[in-house]
Amino acid sequence: MGGTLVMGRKTFESIGRPLPGRTTIIISRNEHYRQDDCEVCPSIEAALQLGNEIEKPIFVAGGGEIYRLALPIVDTVHISTIQTKVTGDIYFPDFPTRDFELAEEREYESNINYVYQRYEKSAK
Ligand SMILES: NC(=O)c1ccc[n+]([C@@H]2O[C@H](COP(=O)([O-])OP(=O)(O)OC[C@H]3O[C@@H](n4cnc5c(N)ncnc54)[C@H](OP(=O)(O)O)[C@@H]3O)[C@@H](O)[C@H]2O)c1
Which fold would CATH assign to domain 4-68? Predict the structure, then answer.
């Protein structure tokens, strides 16, 4: 809430609307792509540059294609792993890579229990 969300065009369409209280930047190769109350950028680099100009915390919100592009350039990864089995054909990239260290881990009880983890890019 209050930040900037960067997401792929397919993730945006799976949500179907901009989430309230946040700026939404959609990444698409289609230069004619538009959505009300959203920004559209042609690359992750352009999206992050625009996000920096907006000067709010930037969160990359998926999906699989965009996570793959973002993982080499982000500082922090927040992962909530819900304790259930689902079928699907879109995956988060292999993680953690050697570039990241676990900085925080908490278990939460909810309608579906989940584990929240925060990874930070390792100092090199
Ligand atoms: N469980 C979770 O935490 C989570 C989080 C987010 C999303 N999801 C799910 O993930 C699914 C979508 O993931 P996805 O991997 O199929 O798609 P995606 O990453 O959301 O979006 C892919 C689209 O992004 C654009 N794109 C990708 N690479 C690009 C590049 N290099 N330059 C410019 N544009 C680029 C293209 O849009 P155009 O085709 O318009 O050019 C591409 O079709 C949805 O089902 C969503 O619900 C799950």
Answer: Dihydrofolate Reductase, subunit A (3.40.430)
Task: Calculate mean pLDDT across residues 50-64.
Answer: 97
| Structure-token pair, residue 62 | 């998926």
Domain boundary assignment for the chain: 4-68, 76-121
Choice from 25, 67, 90 to test ligand 1 binding pocket (greatest atom count within 8 A of CB): 90
Q: Distance between CA 1 and CA 57 in Å, rounded?
A: 10
Which pTM does this prediction carry? 0.96
Q: How far is the centre of ligand 1, averaged over its atoms, from the C-alpha of 75 (Å)?
A: 20
- pLDDT tens track for 32-48: 999 999 999 999 999 99
